[in-house]
Amino acid sequence: MVKMYYDRDADMDLLAEKTIAVVGYGSQGAAQAQNLSDSGLDVIVGLREGGSSWNVAKADGMKVLGIGDAARRADIVHMLLPDEVQPDVYRREIAPGLEQGNAISFSHGFNIHYHQIVPPENVDVFMVAPKGPGYLVRRTYLEGAGVPCLLAVYQNASGSAREIGLGFAKGIGGTRAGVIETSFAEETETDLFGEQVDLCGGVSELIKASFETLVEAGYKPEIAYFETLHELKLIVDLIHEGGLTKMWYYVSNTAEYGGLTVGPKIINEQTRKAMKEALDRIQSGEFAREFVLEGKANMPVLKALEEKEHGHVIEQIGKELRSKMSWLEG
Ligand code: NAD
Ligand code: MG
To answer: Which of 71, 69, 65 lies closest to 47 in space, CA to CA?
Structure first.
Protein backbone atom coordinates (compact mmCIF):
# COMPACT_ATOMS: atom_id res chain seq x y z
CA MET A 1 0.00 0.00 0.00
CA VAL A 2 1.34 3.46 -0.93
CA LYS A 3 2.35 5.75 1.96
CA MET A 4 -0.28 8.30 3.02
CA TYR A 5 0.59 11.50 4.87
CA TYR A 6 -1.70 12.90 7.55
CA ASP A 7 -1.92 16.02 9.75
CA ARG A 8 0.81 14.78 12.10
CA ASP A 9 3.26 14.46 9.14
CA ALA A 10 2.66 18.02 7.90
CA ASP A 11 3.74 21.36 9.31
CA MET A 12 2.33 24.77 8.38
CA ASP A 13 5.15 26.62 10.21
CA LEU A 14 7.08 26.84 6.94
CA LEU A 15 4.16 28.81 5.51
CA ALA A 16 3.67 31.11 8.49
CA GLU A 17 5.90 33.91 7.17
CA LYS A 18 4.73 33.53 3.58
CA THR A 19 2.00 35.18 1.56
CA ILE A 20 0.05 32.85 -0.71
CA ALA A 21 -1.58 34.28 -3.85
CA VAL A 22 -4.40 32.09 -5.09
CA VAL A 23 -4.82 33.07 -8.75
CA GLY A 24 -8.36 32.35 -9.94
CA TYR A 25 -11.50 32.08 -7.82
CA GLY A 26 -13.56 29.38 -9.55
CA SER A 27 -14.39 25.88 -8.37
CA GLN A 28 -10.96 25.14 -6.82
CA GLY A 29 -9.81 28.72 -6.23
CA ALA A 30 -12.71 29.72 -3.99
CA ALA A 31 -12.52 26.53 -1.97
CA GLN A 32 -8.75 26.43 -1.52
CA ALA A 33 -8.36 30.17 -0.81
CA GLN A 34 -11.03 30.07 1.92
CA ASN A 35 -9.60 26.91 3.50
CA LEU A 36 -6.03 28.28 3.53
CA SER A 37 -7.29 31.50 5.05
CA ASP A 38 -9.37 29.70 7.72
CA SER A 39 -6.24 27.67 8.53
CA GLY A 40 -4.61 30.94 9.59
CA LEU A 41 -2.39 31.49 6.54
CA ASP A 42 -1.86 34.82 4.80
CA VAL A 43 -3.88 34.57 1.58
CA ILE A 44 -4.49 37.06 -1.21
CA VAL A 45 -6.56 36.35 -4.31
CA GLY A 46 -5.29 37.40 -7.74
CA LEU A 47 -7.97 38.14 -10.34
CA ARG A 48 -8.65 40.07 -13.53
CA GLU A 49 -9.84 43.52 -12.62
CA GLY A 50 -13.56 43.63 -13.34
CA GLY A 51 -13.64 39.86 -13.99
CA SER A 52 -16.63 37.75 -12.96
CA SER A 53 -15.08 36.39 -9.74
CA TRP A 54 -13.89 39.73 -8.34
CA ASN A 55 -17.06 40.59 -6.39
CA VAL A 56 -17.59 36.98 -5.30
CA ALA A 57 -14.13 36.84 -3.70
CA LYS A 58 -14.67 40.26 -2.08
CA ALA A 59 -18.03 39.16 -0.68
CA ASP A 60 -16.30 36.10 0.82
CA GLY A 61 -14.00 38.49 2.69
CA MET A 62 -10.89 37.82 0.60
CA LYS A 63 -8.11 40.33 -0.04
CA VAL A 64 -8.36 40.75 -3.83
CA LEU A 65 -5.69 42.21 -6.12
CA GLY A 66 -4.95 42.25 -9.83
CA ILE A 67 -3.07 39.11 -10.91
CA GLY A 68 0.25 40.89 -11.50
CA ASP A 69 0.12 42.69 -8.13
CA ALA A 70 -0.82 39.52 -6.28
CA ALA A 71 2.02 37.56 -7.92
CA ARG A 72 4.56 40.27 -7.12
CA ARG A 73 3.51 40.45 -3.49
CA ALA A 74 3.27 36.67 -2.91
CA ASP A 75 5.89 34.11 -1.90
CA ILE A 76 3.76 31.27 -3.26
CA VAL A 77 1.66 31.71 -6.41
CA HIS A 78 -1.01 28.99 -6.63
CA MET A 79 -2.37 28.74 -10.19
CA LEU A 80 -6.08 27.97 -10.25
CA LEU A 81 -7.10 29.47 -13.58
CA PRO A 82 -8.53 27.15 -16.25
CA ASP A 83 -5.59 25.10 -17.55
CA GLU A 84 -5.82 26.50 -21.09
CA VAL A 85 -5.69 30.10 -19.81
CA GLN A 86 -2.68 29.61 -17.50
CA PRO A 87 0.27 29.84 -19.97
CA ASP A 88 -0.60 33.31 -21.34
CA VAL A 89 -1.41 34.75 -17.92
CA TYR A 90 1.80 33.19 -16.56
CA ARG A 91 3.96 34.86 -19.22
CA ARG A 92 2.28 38.25 -19.01
CA GLU A 93 1.57 38.68 -15.31
CA ILE A 94 3.10 36.00 -13.13
CA ALA A 95 6.64 35.40 -14.44
CA PRO A 96 7.71 39.04 -13.87
CA GLY A 97 6.77 38.72 -10.17
CA LEU A 98 8.62 35.46 -9.45
CA GLU A 99 11.78 35.95 -7.41
CA GLN A 100 14.47 33.64 -6.10
CA GLY A 101 13.02 31.61 -3.23
CA ASN A 102 9.40 31.98 -4.34
CA ALA A 103 7.24 29.03 -5.29
CA ILE A 104 4.68 28.43 -7.99
CA SER A 105 2.14 25.69 -7.39
CA PHE A 106 -0.67 23.94 -9.25
CA SER A 107 -3.61 21.59 -8.76
CA HIS A 108 -3.02 19.83 -12.07
CA GLY A 109 0.26 18.99 -13.79
CA PHE A 110 -0.57 19.56 -17.48
CA ASN A 111 1.12 22.92 -18.07
CA ILE A 112 4.35 22.04 -16.28
CA HIS A 113 4.60 18.47 -17.53
CA TYR A 114 4.03 19.48 -21.16
CA HIS A 115 6.25 22.60 -20.89
CA GLN A 116 3.50 25.15 -21.54
CA ILE A 117 4.79 26.94 -18.43
CA VAL A 118 8.55 26.91 -17.79
CA PRO A 119 9.33 28.58 -14.45
CA PRO A 120 12.84 29.90 -13.70
CA GLU A 121 15.23 27.47 -12.00
CA ASN A 122 15.42 29.46 -8.76
CA VAL A 123 11.81 28.88 -7.65
CA ASP A 124 10.07 25.83 -6.18
CA VAL A 125 7.44 24.13 -8.34
CA PHE A 126 4.98 21.82 -6.63
CA MET A 127 1.46 20.47 -6.99
CA VAL A 128 -1.29 19.93 -4.44
CA ALA A 129 -4.22 18.38 -6.26
CA PRO A 130 -7.45 17.61 -4.38
CA LYS A 131 -9.09 14.45 -5.71
CA GLY A 132 -12.53 16.03 -5.62
CA PRO A 133 -14.44 19.08 -6.88
CA GLY A 134 -14.10 22.47 -5.18
CA TYR A 135 -17.44 22.39 -3.37
CA LEU A 136 -16.38 19.18 -1.59
CA VAL A 137 -12.96 20.64 -0.75
CA ARG A 138 -14.78 23.46 1.04
CA ARG A 139 -17.68 21.49 2.54
CA THR A 140 -15.55 18.70 4.02
CA TYR A 141 -13.11 21.29 5.44
CA LEU A 142 -15.96 23.07 7.25
CA GLU A 143 -17.11 19.72 8.61
CA GLY A 144 -13.65 19.10 10.08
CA ALA A 145 -12.67 16.57 7.42
CA GLY A 146 -11.02 16.99 4.01
CA VAL A 147 -10.61 15.62 0.49
CA PRO A 148 -7.58 13.36 -0.23
CA CYS A 149 -4.85 15.16 -2.17
CA LEU A 150 -1.93 14.33 -4.42
CA LEU A 151 1.41 16.04 -3.75
CA ALA A 152 4.23 16.33 -6.28
CA VAL A 153 7.46 18.31 -6.51
CA TYR A 154 8.77 19.23 -9.95
CA GLN A 155 11.52 21.60 -8.89
CA ASN A 156 13.08 21.92 -5.44
CA ALA A 157 15.09 25.15 -5.49
CA SER A 158 14.69 25.96 -1.78
CA GLY A 159 15.41 22.43 -0.58
CA SER A 160 12.06 22.48 1.27
CA ALA A 161 9.55 22.28 -1.60
CA ARG A 162 8.14 18.97 -0.37
CA GLU A 163 7.64 20.19 3.21
CA ILE A 164 6.08 23.44 1.94
CA GLY A 165 3.76 21.44 -0.32
CA LEU A 166 2.75 19.16 2.54
CA GLY A 167 2.06 22.20 4.75
CA PHE A 168 -0.01 23.67 1.91
CA ALA A 169 -1.99 20.42 1.67
CA LYS A 170 -2.61 20.66 5.42
CA GLY A 171 -3.85 24.23 4.95
CA ILE A 172 -6.58 23.13 2.54
CA GLY A 173 -7.55 20.18 4.74
CA GLY A 174 -5.97 17.51 2.54
CA THR A 175 -3.87 15.85 5.28
CA ARG A 176 -7.05 15.23 7.30
CA ALA A 177 -8.08 12.76 4.60
CA GLY A 178 -4.61 11.64 3.48
CA VAL A 179 -2.02 12.84 0.96
CA ILE A 180 -0.32 10.56 -1.57
CA GLU A 181 2.94 11.52 -3.23
CA THR A 182 3.16 11.35 -7.01
CA SER A 183 5.00 13.10 -9.86
CA PHE A 184 3.75 15.70 -12.34
CA ALA A 185 4.13 13.08 -15.09
CA GLU A 186 2.12 10.42 -13.26
CA GLU A 187 -0.69 12.77 -12.21
CA THR A 188 -1.01 14.34 -15.66
CA GLU A 189 -0.78 11.17 -17.74
CA THR A 190 -3.12 9.08 -15.57
CA ASP A 191 -5.62 11.97 -15.38
CA LEU A 192 -5.73 12.33 -19.17
CA PHE A 193 -5.90 8.56 -19.65
CA GLY A 194 -8.75 8.18 -17.16
CA GLU A 195 -10.89 10.90 -18.68
CA GLN A 196 -10.30 9.76 -22.27
CA VAL A 197 -10.58 6.01 -21.93
CA ASP A 198 -12.75 5.30 -18.92
CA LEU A 199 -14.54 8.14 -17.09
CA CYS A 200 -15.69 10.46 -19.88
CA GLY A 201 -14.79 9.06 -23.30
CA GLY A 202 -15.22 5.35 -22.57
CA VAL A 203 -18.44 5.66 -20.59
CA SER A 204 -20.19 8.01 -23.04
CA GLU A 205 -19.39 5.79 -26.03
CA LEU A 206 -20.47 2.66 -24.15
CA ILE A 207 -23.81 4.34 -23.38
CA LYS A 208 -24.40 5.54 -26.95
CA ALA A 209 -23.30 2.29 -28.63
CA SER A 210 -25.50 0.11 -26.41
CA PHE A 211 -28.45 2.52 -26.77
CA GLU A 212 -28.11 2.59 -30.58
CA THR A 213 -27.86 -1.19 -30.75
CA LEU A 214 -31.18 -1.58 -28.94
CA VAL A 215 -32.96 1.17 -30.89
CA GLU A 216 -31.70 -0.11 -34.27
CA ALA A 217 -33.07 -3.55 -33.31
CA GLY A 218 -36.52 -1.96 -32.92
CA TYR A 219 -36.81 -1.51 -29.15
CA LYS A 220 -38.40 1.67 -27.80
CA PRO A 221 -35.83 4.46 -27.21
CA GLU A 222 -37.37 5.22 -23.79
CA ILE A 223 -36.79 1.65 -22.65
CA ALA A 224 -33.27 1.72 -24.11
CA TYR A 225 -32.57 4.99 -22.27
CA PHE A 226 -33.43 3.54 -18.89
CA GLU A 227 -31.41 0.41 -19.55
CA THR A 228 -28.21 1.93 -20.96
CA LEU A 229 -27.96 5.35 -19.28
CA HIS A 230 -30.27 5.81 -16.30
CA GLU A 231 -29.37 2.59 -14.49
CA LEU A 232 -25.65 3.23 -14.80
CA LYS A 233 -25.77 5.41 -11.69
CA LEU A 234 -27.15 2.62 -9.52
CA ILE A 235 -24.32 0.36 -10.63
CA VAL A 236 -21.60 2.99 -10.24
CA ASP A 237 -22.85 3.88 -6.73
CA LEU A 238 -22.42 0.23 -5.67
CA ILE A 239 -18.93 0.09 -7.20
CA HIS A 240 -18.00 3.38 -5.51
CA GLU A 241 -19.16 2.13 -2.12
CA GLY A 242 -17.75 -1.38 -2.14
CA GLY A 243 -15.78 -2.06 -5.29
CA LEU A 244 -16.76 -4.49 -8.02
CA THR A 245 -17.39 -7.17 -5.36
CA LYS A 246 -20.29 -5.23 -3.84
CA MET A 247 -21.81 -4.60 -7.26
CA TRP A 248 -21.65 -8.28 -8.28
CA TYR A 249 -23.11 -9.23 -4.89
CA TYR A 250 -26.14 -6.97 -5.24
CA VAL A 251 -27.09 -7.72 -8.85
CA SER A 252 -28.98 -10.90 -9.76
CA ASN A 253 -27.20 -14.15 -10.61
CA THR A 254 -28.38 -13.69 -14.18
CA ALA A 255 -26.75 -10.27 -14.35
CA GLU A 256 -23.59 -11.57 -12.70
CA TYR A 257 -23.25 -14.58 -15.02
CA GLY A 258 -24.11 -12.57 -18.15
CA GLY A 259 -21.90 -9.67 -17.18
CA LEU A 260 -18.84 -11.75 -16.34
CA THR A 261 -19.06 -13.87 -19.49
CA VAL A 262 -20.07 -11.20 -22.03
CA GLY A 263 -18.20 -8.16 -20.63
CA PRO A 264 -14.77 -9.35 -21.89
CA LYS A 265 -16.27 -9.75 -25.41
CA ILE A 266 -17.25 -6.06 -25.39
CA ILE A 267 -14.05 -4.67 -23.89
CA ASN A 268 -11.84 -7.03 -25.87
CA GLU A 269 -8.30 -7.23 -27.25
CA GLN A 270 -9.08 -4.58 -29.85
CA THR A 271 -10.36 -2.21 -27.16
CA ARG A 272 -7.25 -2.80 -25.05
CA LYS A 273 -5.09 -2.04 -28.07
CA ALA A 274 -6.95 1.26 -28.55
CA MET A 275 -6.42 2.05 -24.85
CA LYS A 276 -2.70 1.45 -25.23
CA GLU A 277 -2.64 3.72 -28.29
CA ALA A 278 -4.39 6.48 -26.32
CA LEU A 279 -1.78 6.09 -23.57
CA ASP A 280 1.08 6.20 -26.08
CA ARG A 281 -0.27 9.49 -27.49
CA ILE A 282 -0.52 10.93 -23.98
CA GLN A 283 3.02 9.83 -23.04
CA SER A 284 4.58 11.09 -26.28
CA GLY A 285 3.04 14.56 -25.87
CA GLU A 286 1.06 14.13 -29.12
CA PHE A 287 -2.31 14.54 -27.42
CA ALA A 288 -1.07 17.62 -25.53
CA ARG A 289 0.18 19.25 -28.74
CA GLU A 290 -3.13 18.53 -30.48
CA PHE A 291 -5.16 19.99 -27.61
CA VAL A 292 -2.96 23.08 -27.18
CA LEU A 293 -3.20 23.85 -30.92
CA GLU A 294 -6.96 23.22 -30.82
CA GLY A 295 -7.14 25.84 -28.06
CA LYS A 296 -5.11 28.35 -30.06
CA ALA A 297 -7.53 27.85 -32.96
CA ASN A 298 -10.54 28.63 -30.70
CA MET A 299 -11.61 24.97 -30.28
CA PRO A 300 -13.23 24.30 -33.70
CA VAL A 301 -13.17 20.50 -33.36
CA LEU A 302 -14.40 20.56 -29.77
CA LYS A 303 -17.33 22.83 -30.67
CA ALA A 304 -18.35 20.65 -33.62
CA LEU A 305 -18.22 17.50 -31.51
CA GLU A 306 -20.18 19.13 -28.68
CA GLU A 307 -22.92 20.10 -31.09
CA LYS A 308 -23.12 16.57 -32.45
CA GLU A 309 -23.17 15.07 -28.95
CA HIS A 310 -25.94 17.42 -27.73
CA GLY A 311 -28.01 16.53 -30.81
CA HIS A 312 -27.89 12.76 -30.19
CA VAL A 313 -31.32 11.09 -29.83
CA ILE A 314 -30.44 9.80 -26.38
CA GLU A 315 -30.07 13.42 -25.23
CA GLN A 316 -33.52 14.38 -26.54
CA ILE A 317 -35.16 11.31 -25.06
CA GLY A 318 -33.28 11.79 -21.81
CA LYS A 319 -34.34 15.39 -21.40
CA GLU A 320 -37.97 14.45 -21.84
CA LEU A 321 -37.81 11.51 -19.43
CA ARG A 322 -35.82 13.31 -16.76
CA SER A 323 -38.40 16.12 -16.66
CA LYS A 324 -40.86 13.49 -15.38
CA MET A 325 -38.55 12.30 -12.63
CA SER A 326 -39.23 14.81 -9.87
CA TRP A 327 -36.47 13.40 -7.64
CA LEU A 328 -33.68 14.30 -10.07
CA GLU A 329 -31.86 17.59 -9.81
CA GLY A 330 -31.88 19.36 -13.17
P1 NAD B 1 -12.74 27.32 -12.94
O2 NAD B 1 -13.04 27.38 -14.38
O3 NAD B 1 -13.78 26.90 -11.99
O4 NAD B 1 -12.20 28.75 -12.40
C5 NAD B 1 -11.39 29.55 -13.14
C6 NAD B 1 -11.14 30.93 -12.54
O7 NAD B 1 -10.34 31.63 -13.50
C8 NAD B 1 -12.36 31.80 -12.31
O9 NAD B 1 -12.08 32.66 -11.22
C10 NAD B 1 -12.45 32.62 -13.60
O11 NAD B 1 -13.07 33.86 -13.40
C12 NAD B 1 -10.97 32.83 -13.90
N13 NAD B 1 -10.68 33.02 -15.33
C14 NAD B 1 -11.25 32.39 -16.39
N15 NAD B 1 -10.73 32.82 -17.54
C16 NAD B 1 -9.79 33.74 -17.22
C17 NAD B 1 -8.89 34.54 -17.98
N18 NAD B 1 -8.87 34.50 -19.32
N19 NAD B 1 -8.04 35.37 -17.31
C20 NAD B 1 -8.05 35.45 -15.96
N21 NAD B 1 -8.90 34.71 -15.19
C22 NAD B 1 -9.74 33.88 -15.81
O23 NAD B 1 -11.42 26.40 -12.81
P24 NAD B 1 -11.23 25.13 -11.85
O25 NAD B 1 -12.12 24.02 -12.29
O26 NAD B 1 -11.26 25.59 -10.44
O27 NAD B 1 -9.73 24.69 -12.25
C28 NAD B 1 -8.59 25.36 -11.75
C29 NAD B 1 -7.44 24.36 -11.67
O30 NAD B 1 -7.77 23.33 -10.75
C31 NAD B 1 -7.10 23.69 -12.99
O32 NAD B 1 -5.71 23.49 -13.03
C33 NAD B 1 -7.80 22.34 -12.85
O34 NAD B 1 -7.22 21.32 -13.64
C35 NAD B 1 -7.59 22.07 -11.37
N36 NAD B 1 -8.51 21.11 -10.76
C37 NAD B 1 -9.85 21.27 -10.89
C38 NAD B 1 -10.72 20.37 -10.26
C39 NAD B 1 -12.22 20.57 -10.34
O40 NAD B 1 -12.92 19.77 -9.75
N41 NAD B 1 -12.76 21.59 -11.00
C42 NAD B 1 -10.21 19.30 -9.52
C43 NAD B 1 -8.82 19.17 -9.39
C44 NAD B 1 -7.99 20.08 -10.01
MG1 MG C 1 -9.30 14.23 -13.20
So the answer is: 65
